Amino acid sequence: GGPTTQMTIVERVYRDEDLPPSARTYAADTVTLGWEERTHVHGRRQTDGGVAFGTSLPRGTVLRAGDLLVLDAERVVVSIVERAERVFVVEPKTPREWSLFAYHIGNRHQPLMIIDSALVCPDVPGVEQLLQQHRMPYARATMPFTPAATVAGHQH
C-alpha cells in the first residue's frame, strides 16, 4: 500500500443554523446517500466531489437531507442529499384503509414513509406480493425515502 493518510472522522451532524462560524467559509460539497446508507453511523464515505472521510456518529443517527458534516482538515462542509430510490406508493382512500395498509406493511417489518396522500415503502423483494395479497392500490415511483421511524432493535 501507499502512504497512510489521516482520514477525517466526522462525529456530529449540524443543521445550517448551528454550523460553527469558522465552517461558514469552507467549500461546499455534497454526499448522495440512499436510505440504508443514511442509517449507517460508522463507515467510510466519499463526497460527490471525491473527498474521502469517515463517520462515527451517535448510535441511532439517521442522516437526512440538509444535514451538514464538517471536515475541518479539508475545510469542506458536506451536505446530505437523499438519493431517489425505487419505491411503491400506496394511496389509501379511507381512514380504515390507512390503518389497515400501514398495519400490514409494518407487520412485515418493512420500513414505511408516510406522506400527505400516501404510504411509501421500498421496492424490495416480497413487498409487491404483500401489496397484491392485501389488495392495496399501488404505483411504482422513484423518490428519496426516509421512513417515519427507524425500526428499533436492529443494531449490529
Taken in chain order, the helices and strands follow as EEHEEEEEHEEHE
> What is the terminal-to-terminal distance?
30 Å
How much of the residues is beta strand, in percent?
Answer: 25-35%
Mean pLDDT: 91
Radius of gyration: 19 Å
Which percent range fits the helix content? 10-25%
Number of strands: 10
Q: Could you give a short account of the major beta sheet?
A: 4 strands, antiparallel
Would you tell me the structural class of the helices and strands? Answer: alpha+beta
By DSSP (H or I, 4+ residues per run), the number of helices equals: 3
- Global outline: elongated
Poorly predicted regions: 151-156
**Numbering strands along the chain, what is their spatial order in the largest sheet?**
8-9-7-10
Write the layout of secondary structure elements.
Elements: E1 9-10, E2 27-33, H1 35-39, E3 42-46, E4 52-56, E5 68-71, E6 76-82, E7 84-90, H2 95-107, E8 113-115, E9 118-122, H3 127-133, E10 138-144
Could you please describe the fold and organization of this structure?
With 156 residues, the chain is α+β, with helices and mostly antiparallel strands. Helix content is 16%, strand content 33%. The chain has three helices and ten strands. The chain has a four-stranded antiparallel sheet, with helices on one face. Strand 5 and strand 6 form a beta hairpin. The longest helix is centred in the middle third of the chain and has 13 residues. It is elongated and about 55 Å long.
